[in-house]
Amino acid sequence: MTETIKVLIDNIDPDKGVLGNIIKTDHTHYALQSIFPNKTANVEYHASGSLHYIGKLDKYVYPIIMHNLTYINFMFAVGDSDYDVIALLPKEVKKAYFKNKVTVLIVIFEPLGGTHTSIDIKTFVKMIENNPRYNNLLFLTLHYIDSPNFLFINILQDLMQDWGPLDGESIRYDRLENYDNRRFCCFLMNHAETEERDWLLKFFISNDLINKGFISATNDKLFFNHLDIVDTLNKSAINIIPEGNFERKLDHFMSEKVYRCFINKKPFVYLGQHQSLKYMRSLGYKTFSPIINEDYDEMENDKLRFIEVCRQIKILANKPIEEFKNDMRKLEEICEHNYKLFVSTQNAAIPKLISRLTE
Amino acid sequence: MKQLKVLIDNIDANTGIKNNILPAVRRIELILESRFPDLDIDYYPSYFVDKIEGKWIYPVVISSLGYMHWLFQYQAGGIPAEIHQNDIFSLIPKKVKQSYDKGNGIILIFIFEPFPMNSSIENFKDIIESSPVYKNIRICTLHYINSPNFIIGTCNNYSLDNYSTKGRKHKAKYLVEESNRRFCCFLMNYQESEERKKLLLFFKKSDMLSRGFITAKNKGKEITQDKSNLIFDDLDIEDTLNKVSLNIIPEGDFNSLGIPYISEKICRCFKYKKPFIFLGRQGTLKYLHDIGYKTFDPIINETYDNIENPNKRLMQIFREINRLINNDSFDARMEQLQNICEYNHNLYNKITDETNKRLYKDITNE
What we know:
heterodimer, A: alpha/beta, elongated, B: four-stranded parallel beta sheet
């Protein structure tokens, strides 16, 4: 039987629906859909204010969905506090929280420790774990954190096949029927967001690689504008991932961009934080060395790492086709392993999360 | 227990339920909980109307009748949807309207004030009944209106036993020593109407302040002055009624020529089996007879009900109170009225049961 997760929402607008708790985002519904995909649980919304009228409390979840990590340090304290996240809960929710009837579920979509004002993850986790006030807090983040207050689960499920809700605009995807398969794909999209994505685009142009891959970039006529993720991955042999956070020196994280490769069984070249591949391997995943030279992952210098990533892309793109195909075949076993590990990890984590929230 | 699923547009995280559409002094959750004590009430955010299995209600409370004519329009013969830009449907959330159009729920309107003078119930009834779109609207009023859209009696258990919606309820231990008081009169906001002030003055001048349990805001000090200690600020209704033989009802709307109505003040007497003298709209006792209730003539002279002139009616009522309270055989006479009270009590329960049976069929889920 599908479990029902009773979700408390402070503001359910009669016309707009579910609005965000505490942090005013309209993303809450999408976020929960993403955490509990394909009817793994029945999400049932209740107005937080309705706790006033309920005699016998059930078990509830009070979600807080965060993108911008500037907030994070404001919300927690070492001891009792009138100035932390618990103090911000509506009165009845707070009462139920301390009766162990509410789990405050904090979902953080950006890597922790993203700004120079952030504390490091270990200190943060310690602060949460050591404060009994936070016993009923559960975090879902992009990081694997071994702590009773944290669960590691793909919170970006809604972005696995789609770009997610882009302010309600409907996307017209470029059609790929008339294109032959290409060696690689690279979803740059908001390339203007980060410097290394811009460099990568310039690299594709200057090395005449535009026609060797399906490359998307917003508002640039040389490239595709919108590519359907699954269709494109299916027509490509390898994915080049411009992760973002390229210069980040803090704890590693996993995002939907890598998960997409796992679920679609694609090898990848990763343009991201130093030692990200090492982090993936520490979680049990396999990467693609020696078929793809992954020395770039060990290069701490960001510019050198970027150059080495580009060099590997060029090698792969210009390899004789039979050799390339042969190499890709050799990577199928690794992709299969990653697929299985990802699916089994998810399949184990979701019931664990559901029981944590309902029992 | 049958379930009532209630749609609320705004359930504030801290303060709870806000009334739908119209702000009103009376809080909807208190009204519903007392009007439907035998139902299991669940509140749902209106936005999730399409997730509700079974029937729902969308309650609206109207205290001031000024709103009334904004909410409904004459629409006989089938009117295109754009007309709803101007009626109640322009005010309810889009998703609720969509679900209403599919026949999934009822808009339940509580009107706590009587229809004012010059308003025609027949006309209003015609507007509602002749418009197919209003088929699933139910209106609880103080008037007995024979129509599928109207539900007899707005008043509910809560206002039967309490003066206000603030949850005030005093257990009146201090009444134990007060065995000599024959009647009660809950004046409360006596400053609201002229006849209540006159009634309080009458009680004072005729030395009746100590003969009954009389309540008035701040003990009516402006009028009672040095005798204010003889009356009460607030009393528990049930306890007080159970200690007296007669209730004097200062209904309000005394000078109004509008259609009679039945408020919680009369219903209390039915519930607690008390005879009463009524200071309200002329013809109210006749109205009660028409519905099937009995009143207390000839033991209580009720000719006052026929007197159109408010001053003369008031004088006649004062004379009758004076005659009854100062009569040595008061207790025996009131005892003689018990059969009528019993009859009214049973009829009141029967009407309530039948009304609820009809209403519950439309609004509840098993």
